[in-house]
């Protein structure tokens, strides 16, 4: 595999209905405001384009959770169904499906025309669409998932019903809502080519699925023990084994909230910025990475745009920027 990053297609997906806390829908704008395009234009000799998946969705209070937001959405004019937790239910499923299909179309188009798709979320449910789109282009897509969470719940194992915690279960066909339900997508991901990195918070149902379905998981303790460089080298081998491309998904909550406070679901004990940057440089050395998404930035929780700035720095490191 020798996948080029000489031409980059930045695809903004300002979607936040997959998570419990408002604000991540503003993530793409905050990352661009932190200077992403200025960084990329020096790293992509064949140019950088910028597109947006347009989604009609209401604003909501920054501290409101979906389970308490009926009044926020009541006058929105949209067919929204905020619910308390119900077994077998994905909150805002029609909106998640619509977002996923539009995102998949944009991502697949960019990849087919030779651009490297760089998707900016939004909460992590945005990656449902990214993975569906890339699976239209690549027969055997691998995934490296840099995150504090596993995002492997199904509709029945999820404690919350939030779509951002079900992305990989949807992509692999473990959930009732499957990636193959999205537009022209005809393939599911293979469990053996999924590698979780930086994990430090898993629900019981996710632990069971990881163990029983052969999904690879490097926890934060594995990183402490092995070092981030070794973990990334192993992740590339596992995700790339018999694959024709790898998708890299970076949730900014993979970093410790002391360094990246502006995220939707912070968990203490995460990666340092230095570890995250080294990870991006290690991944950049591989020409097997075919697409990337950066998700989870919540500017309403941020301090002086620190998290957006870190997202830009990590994207630039992956695209080839070096200190010297």
Automatic annotation (TrEMBL):
<dbReference type="InterPro" id="IPR023696">
    <property type="entry name" value="Ureohydrolase_dom_sf"/>
</dbReference>
<comment type="pathway">
    <text>Nitrogen metabolism; urea cycle; L-ornithine and urea from L-arginine: step 1/1.</text>
</comment>
<keyword id="KW-0464">Manganese</keyword>
<dbReference type="InterPro" id="IPR014033">
    <property type="entry name" value="Arginase"/>
</dbReference>
<comment type="similarity">
    <text>Belongs to the arginase family.</text>
</comment>
<dbReference type="InterPro" id="IPR020855">
    <property type="entry name" value="Ureohydrolase_Mn_BS"/>
</dbReference>
<dbReference type="GO" id="GO:0006525">
    <property type="term" value="P:arginine metabolic process"/>
</dbReference>
<keyword id="KW-0479">Metal-binding</keyword>
<keyword id="KW-0056">Arginine metabolism</keyword>
<dbReference type="GO" id="GO:0005737">
    <property type="term" value="C:cytoplasm"/>
</dbReference>
<keyword id="KW-0378">Hydrolase</keyword>
<dbReference type="GO" id="GO:0000050">
    <property type="term" value="P:urea cycle"/>
</dbReference>
<dbReference type="Pfam" id="PF00491">
    <property type="entry name" value="Arginase"/>
</dbReference>
<dbReference type="GO" id="GO:0004053">
    <property type="term" value="F:arginase activity"/>
</dbReference>
<dbReference type="GO" id="GO:0030145">
    <property type="term" value="F:manganese ion binding"/>
</dbReference>
<feature type="region of interest" description="Disordered">
    <location>
        <begin position="57"/>
        <end position="80"/>
    </location>
</feature>
<dbReference type="InterPro" id="IPR006035">
    <property type="entry name" value="Ureohydrolase"/>
</dbReference>
<protein>
    <recommendedName>
        <fullName>Arginase</fullName>
        <ecNumber>3.5.3.1</ecNumber>
    </recommendedName>
</protein>
<feature type="compositionally biased region" description="Polar residues">
    <location>
        <begin position="69"/>
        <end position="80"/>
    </location>
</feature>
């Amino acid at each position: 595999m020798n996948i080029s990053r000489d031409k980059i297609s930045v695809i903004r997906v300002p979607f936040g209905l997959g998570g419990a806390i408002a604000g991540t829908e503003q993530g793409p704008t905050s990352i661009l405001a932190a200077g992403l395009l200025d960084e990329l234009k020096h790293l992509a000799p064949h140019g950088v384009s910028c597109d947006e998946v347009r989604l009609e969705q209401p604003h909501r209070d920054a501290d409101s959770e979906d389970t308490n937001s009926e009044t926020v959405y009541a006058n929105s004019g949209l067919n929204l169904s905020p619910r308390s937790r119900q077994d077998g239910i994905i909150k805002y499923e029609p909106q998640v499906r619509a977002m996923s299909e539009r995102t998949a179309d944009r991502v697949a188009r960019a990849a087919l025309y030779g651009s490297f798709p760089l998707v900016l979320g939004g909460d992590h449910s945005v990656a449902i669409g990214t993975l569906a789109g890339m699976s239209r282009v690549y027969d055997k897509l691998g995934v490296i998932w840099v995150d504090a969470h596993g995002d492997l719940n199904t509709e029945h194992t999820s404690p919350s019903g939030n779509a951002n915690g079900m992305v990989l279960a949807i992509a692999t066909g473990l959930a009732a809502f499957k990636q193959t339900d999205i537009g022209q997508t005809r393939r599911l991901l293979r469990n053996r080519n999924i590698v979780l990195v930086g994990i430090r918070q898993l629900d019981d149902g996710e632990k069971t699925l990881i163990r029983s379905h052969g999904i690879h998981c490097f926890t934060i303790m594995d990183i402490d023990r092995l070092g981030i460089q070794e973990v990334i080298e192993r992740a590339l081998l596992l995700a790339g084994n018999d694959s024709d491309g790898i998708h890299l998904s970076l949730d900014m909550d993979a970093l410790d909230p002391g360094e990246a406070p502006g995220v939707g679901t912070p968990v203490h004990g995460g990666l340092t910025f230095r570890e995250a940057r080294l990870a991006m440089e290690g991944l950049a050395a591989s020409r097997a990475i075919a697409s990337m998404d950066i998700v989870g930035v919540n500017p309403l929780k941020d301090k002086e745009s620190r998290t957006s700035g870190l997202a830009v720095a990590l994207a630039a490191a992956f695209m080839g920027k070096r200190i010297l």
